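Need tokens for this chain, all 354 residues.
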Amino acid sequence: MRFVCRLLAAVLMALAVVPGVRASYFGQTGFVDGAIRPACCRQVPTVAACPPRGIPWFRVEWVPRTVTFHRVVWQTQWCEVQQTCYRTVMRTEYVEQRRIVQRPVWETAEREIRYTVWKPVVEQRVRECRYRVRRPVWETVEREVPYTRWRLVEETVEQEVQRTTFRRVVEQVPGPTLCRFVWEPGRWTVDPCTGVVCYVPGRLRREVVQCPPRQVVRLVPQTEIVKVPVKRCRWVAETATRKVTERVCRWVEEERVQRIPYRVCRLVPQTVVKKVPVRYCRYVAEEVIHRVPRTVYERVPYTVTRRVPRLVPVRVPCTFTYYVPRLVGTTIPLPQPACPTTLPCSPPIPNCGT
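Here are the structure tokens for all 354 residues:
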């Protein structure tokens, strides 16, 4: 757009400066040698004869516009609902039942019982017990005892060690996809009625743009086996002999006699008479009244209030601001040439009428 405006300004300045160039604006005004005169030859003052010259210029201003719309938001409302329910109530009733039962009546009597018992009689006696015992006899002797001693030996060996290293790998990842709005280029048009050059802006177009790819560095683990010298120690067994003084015990057998007292029990029969109480039972008929419990079920109504959720739509106002381009027309003044007091008619132009 700037290039088109500069081109129009250069063309107008060339027409104004070059002598002998004559331009007409819908046959009403002419430019001759940098002077402006009407189509009819008249005597006019200098100001009317030489109007100020300028180049029309348009600039774009962005005007903010605010749009308010409503967004539907669902809210949860709790409503109270009353519901009649029934619960089962258990009630106990007693029912009388009559029946004839036999009640036992106990009577006590005595009777003689003869039986034989064995009475224990204990006697004290003594008996001899011969036994052999072993008595320990201690002696001090010396003997050679072999033992094993350990010597520490240090040696160096190579040991395989597994270790993990990380290798840098560079990968190319495609960029994200973005959505943007682009204004199409506008164009300049000339109004055929007024001759005013107007700028028609392009329309707003939405396009999807793929961002450039980016490089990602990641570490890849790799395993390798390395031989590492390791010092280790081991114990070597050696056999040696030393003299040990110790006490030795040997056993000597002896015979001993022991008198052991013991008790002998023998049973002697004996007759015993014993009076034993005896209980006799007889049954007497009686009428008994029993109260038998019985469970009765009843349904009792009661009211329950429950809170039930319900979704209700609510319109929430939202405000969105965007900018709209607007063309503002201005005039760039050009340098004014020297104008005479009156405009001569050369060549003579016939009378155009008043």
